[in-house]
Amino acid sequence: MFTGLVETVGTVVSLRPAGMCTVISFRASLFAGKLVPGQSVAVCGACLTVTALEGDIFSADVMPETLKKTKLRSLRPGARVNLERALRADGRLDGHIVTGHIDGVAPVREISRGPDGFLLTFTLGRETEPLVVPRGSVAVDGVSLTVAGLAGASCTVGLIPATLEATTLGDIRPGDEVNIETDILGKYVRRLLETGAFTNKNTGASSLSPESLREAGWI
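RESULT FIELD:
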């Protein structure tokens, strides 16, 4: 599990095919001596497993499905990437719960200057649009952000100067793609509704109502 608070920005050293996988190596000076094989690192929000270490360089095997569903497919040597190690059990959850399982990529539409900072607007895909809510949390390239505006598939998040400086979001331009991970809580609720978990089998009506929630002590 991650928090969406980027620890450092690393760079891609190399990419090479290895059987069914692609081995990608990253340079991360901050992580030198701190990683071990088998540890999880979020790379632009995508959870990867450390498979090899050499000084300040770590490598990870990336499956074809991961390349297909994330912007990692477009990485090239020299590219900058957001990096975050998995959250310790005694750590602070200063961002939000991020699993490192990317839901899809979104094209950036606009970057503008607002009264409270910069605004980044991107277009959500069909799968991610229903799972994003105003003032909710969304991970963009592994960065925990709050949804500032939502109009259909158009989603806007606010960026303070510190975020632009400490992450790769300061490099983003219109037309670029960003990895999107929606809130895990919304995914579970959606799945429960789709499978009829809240439906009365006798009447076919939904068993989820203010009355049932009040009886269960939720409200």
